[in-house]
């Protein structure tokens, strides 16, 4: 466990570098946008295609597919439980959709992939991708609808359909299916293409952590106001989510590696896309931004506990 924690600490050193670079104005919103595009459209897809084909056989992958039921059940269960919690602690009606998203979704791209690589190596990525695929579909359908239901109702439903199609068909998910196709069809990847993808994929963790560091500095941790909603977002992210994964995983006799990596992925800070969507659809941007900053800061505190739980499964 200590080795895993040290590996993750290396990533947080890169986060610290991102904060420093943002403080010195080397990184800003414009550079974050550029790095994010490089990460999502080039580095991450390269990593995904290679990991699927280098670490799994066709038989191993097909045996893994049914276990996608675990992240689906966990995410939907978290959404239901967070809706009930929002009613109990009296979250404002206009913020309930946002609260549900904050409690149930994790930063798979910016934290999940780098953390999985640090703890399990590339062999763990196909497991993580099952959670990523589940979350992508749920987030951009049900999650988006809950976030800004009124806007879509006024537009007659056309707007939400266009947004869902645009966001679900993204490069990481496409790379996931390309990698699966290559694996299932037994198509060999030429050595030069393999090296090319490996070189591009090597940027994944560094780009993701630099962006996270810049986000932390630009959003400002000192501006966080502790509220009931914020406290419960942290509780859901780092306590309820991993516990629910373990309980449901054991209940349905899911593969142990799937339980461990799903626990790791589901107990991450919130996605920074939630803040972007909060701004776009005019919901509580302050709550979304504070939740992002607080969840990133709290993650370092909860990480040893999360790793202990994972290694104890």
From TrEMBL:
Location in or out of the cell: Cell membrane
Q: Offer a single GO CC term for the protein.
A: plasma membrane
Q: Name one GO biological process term.
A: transmembrane transport
Q: Which UniProt keywords apply?
A: Cell membrane, Membrane, Transmembrane, Transmembrane helix, Transport
* Membrane-crossing residue ranges in chain numbering: 6-22, 34-52, 64-84, 96-121, 127-147, 168-190, 196-218, 230-254, 292-310
Q: Which InterPro entries match?
A: Mem_transp_PIN-like (IPR004776), Na+/solute_symporter_sf (IPR038770)
Its membrane topology:
Multi-pass membrane protein
A Pfam family for this UniProt protein? Mem_trans
In Swiss-Prot or TrEMBL terms, this protein is called AEC family transporter
